[in-house]
């Protein structure tokens, strides 16, 4: 399994970015997809996740209403649309995947494969 994340960059507060994660997996729709982030000096934290079969989504409270996770099963790709970005969103964002789903989707230990990370910087 390989994951390739892209789309990071630097934006001003209030701006938007869309991250993409291309996955090389057997049957993409059978895999849950997730995004975590890690700021300097902090632990990796859950951002958003989307299930495979029904595309049910989950979000961290800090990003609800601002971020949207989605997936395109035909393209084996997951996305994270980030709107109204804040300086505290600055971090390296990692995409991740696992077969099936875990009720503890918010724990990074529940995910099996990780991408290389993409930097998001929100600054004026």
Account of the 3D structure:
With 124 residues, the chain is mainly β. The strands form 2 sheets. Strands 2, 4, 5, 6, 9, 10 and 11 form a 7-stranded mixed β-sheet that branches.
C-alpha geometry: globular
Task: Report the major sheet.
Answer: 7 strands, mixed
Q: Structural class, judged by helices and strands?
A: mainly beta
Radius of gyration equals 13 Å
Poorly predicted regions: none
Q: Helix tally?
A: 0
Strand content: over 45%
Write the layout of secondary structure elements.
Layout: E1 2-6, E2 9-11, E3 17-24, E4 31-38, E5 45-50, E6 57-59, E7 67-72, E8 77-82, E9 91-99, E10 113-114, E11 118-122
List keywords for this structure.
11 strands, four-stranded antiparallel sheet, seven-stranded mixed sheet, mainly beta, 124 residues, globular
Task: Give a brief description.
By secondary structure, the chain is mostly beta strands. It has strands at residues 2-6, 9-11, 17-24, 31-38, 45-50, 57-59, 67-72, 77-82, 91-99, 113-114, 118-122. The mean pLDDT is 96.
């Amino acid at each position: 399994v390989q994951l390739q994340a892209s789309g990071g960059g630097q934006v001003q507060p209030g701006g938007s970015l869309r991250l993409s994660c291309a996955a090389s997996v057997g049957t993409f729709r059978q895999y849950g997809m997730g995004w975590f982030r890690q700021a300097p000096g902090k632990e990796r934290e859950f951002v958003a996740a989307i299930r495979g079969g029904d595309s049910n989504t989950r979000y961290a409270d800090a990003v609800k209403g601002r971020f949207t996770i989605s997936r395109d099963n035909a393209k084996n790709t997951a996305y994270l649309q980030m709107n109204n970005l804040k300086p505290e969103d600055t971090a390296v964002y990692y995409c991740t995947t696992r077969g099936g789903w875990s009720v503890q989707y918010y724990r990074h230990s529940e995910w099996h494969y990780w991408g290389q990370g993409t930097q998001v910087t929100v600054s004026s």
